[in-house]
Amino acid sequence: MTIRDLEIFIEVCKTKNMSKAAENLKISQPTVSHAISQIENEYNVQLFDRISKKLYITDVGLRLFDYAKNILEQFQNTVIYLQGSSAGHSINLGVSSYFSSQFLLEIINEYEKLHEDVKIRVYVDLREELLKKLDAGIINIAIIDGEADLDKIVSVPFYKDEIYVISSNHSDLKDKPVLDHDDLKGKKFVLGYLGEQSMKNLHSYLRDTNIPIDIKYICKNKDMVLNIVKSSDAISFGAKSSFNDDDIIMHRVKDLDISRDYNLVYHKETYLKKNLKDFVQFIKNKFKEKN
Fold it and tell me: What PROSITE patterns does UniProt report for this protein, alphabetically (predicted)?
């Protein structure tokens, strides 16, 4: 039984049709039939019941389907890791999907210009998924919001992204750079995601100040938050780096001091090669001027 046999088996499970599986995989139907028969004969099992020219997966087939998906995922991750370890891809960088795309492009372009022999492959994902990839060795290092509260992960803080209230340029708040509590009362809010610790601090602030705000929308998509604010009278809390838009006004809030803290994280057991050490130092130096 080979990886290719498992790929074919998974596709047959999904389509429940060998001809369709062959079409999707761009191989012949006899090749698909042979792969399934090969597994069944090698291990003396039946993966499908064949009734009236239809395929019905057996209990053994269902169990193998679960195993096969995991095996294939691990195999693909291994291939990605080995490809990323080659000379052509020296750094596999994970980046939180909430990190500023402008900052990310600055980092990649400037670093690769300074180090022409180093190539950076970027994986943009949610914080939890990045930590899994880091643990699996798929990425060498990651930029995440907040610290990684894990013994085996090293966190290096490098940037505090201040949290502001944002409104549209046609809002009645547009001429007020600093808002007080009365300005927020009764306003419709779009509640986006600011990072775990920032959200806790924000909820504490709203509870302690007892400001009666109307949370109209709960949305984790940054672009949707932006569009709602721009096209309505709703306001939101947002990180300074996330909203570089002429139609958006940023306001400080009296007594509110919250930031979304970004960290570079890597596995404690990882030996940081010179290029990774240089990369960590490059980011720390670059963001000194932004803090």
Answer: HTH_LYSR
